[in-house]
């Protein structure tokens, strides 16, 4: 009886510990700040991607561990398996990562200049006339990426760090660069957040190509395929129930799949 009691006690303890572990599973997510897609972790609006991930994975017993790192550091850390996922990635950003079937948004490649600039985007040939500002390790689209691979430091400035877009905006305002390449939603959000008049930095055209955005999971994590499948099922359910659209509305956005 004593032996049986010990076995029962041990079984109960293992069950309790397993339940605690299951209820406290963590999905660790890293990215650079890229609102409205993802923003500061302590913000009441941390970005729709973070809010949607929380909605999807809480039903599986996960909590979200989300923080900001530079884009390059985020890619390296997730690739090595130190964190589970990165948000806001195009497939060209990290082709070795595990991607869900469902996308997580759409991103354009737009160009922005200081008020008064006569430059307007007119295909790849127009790049040679200006100094572009871009962000380290970003994949924009095939046209821009090909140009960046063949260009020199004299024609391109590459920003790094946790807030590279603000760095590029300030350089544009001061005349150190001529054009910033950025997603339209992200640029307009950055101007508003930093109290910069929308008329001071103006659109100068955009490429026709539109890229799908994803949450991308670590190629070093054996759980990544399962996590991607959870995301696929979860976002379909949120869309069917109207919860996805409600979250996007908080950010002034509409469902990219509609």
What would you note in describing this structure?
Helices cover 38% and strands 22% of the residues. Mean pLDDT is 91; it is low at 1-23. An 8-stranded mixed beta sheet has the order 2-1-3-8-4-7-5-6, sandwiched between helices. The chain is globular. Helix 2 packs across helix 7. Helix 4 links the parallel strand 5 and strand 6 (156-159). It has 258 residues and is α/β, with parallel strands linked by helices. The N and C termini lie far apart (64 Å). The longest helix is centred in the first third of the chain and has 22 residues, at 2-23. It is built from 8 helices and 8 strands; from the N terminus they run H-E-H-E-H-E-E-E-H-E-H-E-H-E-H-H.
What are its keywords?
single chain, about 260 residues, alpha/beta, 8-stranded mixed β-sheet, 8 helices, 8 strands, about 40% helix, globular
In terms of topology, how is this protein built?
Elements: H1 2-23, E1 25-31, H2 48-58, E2 62-68, H3 71-79, E3 85-89, E4 105-114, E5 132-135, H4 142-150, E6 156-159, H5 164-174, E7 179-182, H6 184-193, E8 201-217, H7 224-241, H8 243-250
Parallel strand pairs: 1-2, 1-3, 5-6, 5-7
Antiparallel strand pairs: 3-8, 4-7, 4-8
Helix pairs in contact: 2-7
How many DSSP H or I helices? 8
Adjacency order of strands in the biggest sheet: 2-1-3-8-4-7-5-6
Number of strands: 8
> Mind describing the biggest β-sheet?
8 strands, mixed
Q: Which residues sit in consecutive blocks of at least 5 with pLDDT less than 50?
A: 1-23
Label the overall shape: globular
- Which secondary-structure class do the elements indicate? alpha/beta
- Beta-strand percent range: 15-25%
Please compute the radius of gyration using only Cα atoms.
Answer: 22 Å
User: Element order, helices and strands?
Assistant: HEHEHEEEHEHEHEHH
The average pLDDT is: 91
Compute the separation of the termini in Å: 64 Å
Helix content: 25-40%
